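TEACHING EXERCISE
Course module: macromolecular assemblies
Task: Read the component lines below, then compare them to the predicted structure of the full complex.
Student: A.B.
Group: 4
Components provided:
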Amino acid sequence: MTDFNAQLAVELAALRKADLLRELRRVESPAGTRACLGGRELLNFSSNDYLGLANHPALKEAAVCAAKKFGAGAGASRLVCGSLAVHHELEEALAAFKGAEAALTFSTGHAAALGAITALLDRGDLLILDKLVHACIVDAAKLSGAKLRVFRHNDLNDLEAKLKWAAKQRSAVSGQRPARTLIVTESVFSMDGDLAPLRDLVELKERFGAWLMVDEAHATGLFGKRRSGLVEEFGLTGRVEIQMATLGKAVGAAGGAICGSRNLIDLLVNRARSFIFSTAPVPAAAAAASAGLKVIESSEGEARRERLWLLVEQLKRVLIEASFPPPAVRAPIIPVAMGAEARAMRFAESLRKAGVFVPAIRYPTVARGAARLRFTVSAEHTAEDLAALAKALGGIANG
Ligand SMILES: *Cc1c(COP(=O)(O)O)cnc(C)c1O
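Instructor-supplied answer key:
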């Protein structure tokens, strides 16, 4: 035991020395624009609860009702006896929302990515990822055993080169079924707030006979007429084989989802190990997600989205005026480049002292030396909140 703890201590010390040590901060308040940390109330610009639904009365009520009706836990995996009506209701709502034939939900978005990619790909198949996809896609890629290539972020020429490589590999394989080529990207990138060129991507993958999976974790609830995501906004529903969503961000609850054809969903029920060998999500989570979708699809949802975009523009102006210029993003994720990890940590600490909570995002979430402050805004923020942020930023020199 002494050797065990001594070894881990060495590793932790190395992380601290490199400004990469992460620690949990205990929050004593509900999700919202204020976070109570260490007895202090901070203005919160760190949450992915973009529409302010995580603490919405309709979602909380739905969660309470589901717990009363179905219990606190589901009791077993979905395939054993945990496939409760609340899960089916959520999946029916999700399929309609995303314009897909069917949907399957998982306990987390992370589990959805692992389950879907490893169910579809095997050794001998080919997987092509955007350089900046989320860690869960990278984990799934490793687990799948598929041959992997990474294309430069949003670079269609580089993607085409990788597709040509895949076509060559494919013609060399003589397995029981044709080798598959799957491209995975995000629609709104989680740490950069930029958008994938989905229309061109779809044309390219169709030209090469590849399949496309789009992770809409940060677009669900925000883009498109129905607010189902960027696939809808770009009119690509039906041309994207695998639509992935998470239910813990704008939807305000918890969980992950894969939406697509009936055959895709039936296959996942049979092959997605993170679905099969895992207890069903608690009824409260499924019911809260269904309620979140209802709010998103209502006129209240539209009003919240409108308000969010207004605040995004205001936040950008605040950052420009404080000499922290943000990149030209079209999302409620506004990264301000800091470079060195230590610098990002220092600025985040100064902001905390000034009463504002913004996370310093560091390796391995982003590349080494590409640390950033990641500002996120919620429909629940007010003009006064942004004025308070401007004041806090004004007190910190951007040196
Ligand atoms: C948050 C996130 C996930 C994981 O979803 P969870 O439900 O939090 O596990 C997957 N992909 C992207 C892009 C994300 O931002």
